[in-house]
Design brief:
By secondary structure, this protein is mainly alpha-helical. The chain contains four helices and no strands. The chain has one domain. Helix content is 53%, strand content 0%.
Amino acid sequence: MSTFDPQSRGFPLRKNFDRTALEKLLHNLQEFDQDLARHLREELLGGGSPTLSRSSFEQLLHLSQTNGIYSPAEDLARSIGELLFGRPLG
């Protein structure tokens, strides 16, 4: 799994994000995208320093920009972005 610095895309990852809030959001995201929820959980909550793969970042970014097509999932992706980066993706 390749990691990268999301700051290179203008989104510095907060290291002190609320892990409990993220777990709740990921639990809800599972309903729409089990693979993404699992990857984010492993990368960000799996112990050690939180990291984010380019693939997970791109998937989260894409999901947050669906123009309402997947409205509940889009809202979750934006909330996750706000929690991790201090602002919503998209």
